Amino acid sequence: MKLYYSPGACSLSPHIALLEAGLPYDLVKVDLRAKKLENGDDFLKVNPKGQVPVLALDSGELVTEGPVIVQMIADRAGKNLVPPRDSDERYKLLEWLNYITTELHKNLGPMFSPALADDAKAFFKDRAMGKFKYLETALAGRDYLMGKQFTVADGYLFTMLMWATDRLKFDLSDMPNLLAYKARVAARPTVQEAMTKEGLLKAA
């Protein structure tokens, strides 16, 4: 398999999932602004949507959209990264993935645009903070979103928390559950490895 990624983008989530799954993969770096691959090829010929992540399967099939990619990775790994299909817990995981993509990702993403006015950024930040407050309550007494077990939803939420705190400088100091959760996920060896490979952490 081959993962098309941009350092620190939402493609970090499937990158973590691949490492957690123990599946072999290659990385292809994408310049999202130029829509070019490292070798200069046109990324839009790979994904006309112009976005990462893209997972190229060994069959040649391309899969896009992060929440779908991480489920595919987990299902192929046969590990506990997702609950069994058709179980009540699987639908709860889907609920979390949808919440993260629609309520966090889509509110945080626009804030990276230099063209966005300050009042518009404040609007999106206020909306995102409301979602983080919900998560602060939901994570009380839990190690991960689904309880004691790390799942692919946690890699996605961690990526959004990285965006919020490290890049957008959100102050989440009044959300101890969320900050403890972020630190817990960040300490996982697979997360450290993914961030190192993407140049977000210096190699030890």
UniProtKB/TrEMBL annotation:
Keyword set includes Ribosomal protein: no
GO molecular function, one term: transferase activity
Any Pfam family matching the protein: GST_N_2
Keyword RNA-binding: no
InterPro entries, per the entry: Glutathione-S-Trfase_C-like, Glutathione-S-Trfase_C_sf, Glutathione_S-Trfase, Glutathione_S-Trfase_N, GST_C, Thioredoxin-like_sf
GST C-terminal domain: residues covered: 86-204
SUPFAM superfamilies: GST C-terminal domain-like, Thioredoxin-like
Domain GST N-terminal, first and last residues per copy: 1-81
NCBIfam families per UniProt: PRK10542.1
Protein name: Glutathione S-transferase
Species lineage: Bacteria, Pseudomonadati, Pseudomonadota, Alphaproteobacteria, Hyphomicrobiales
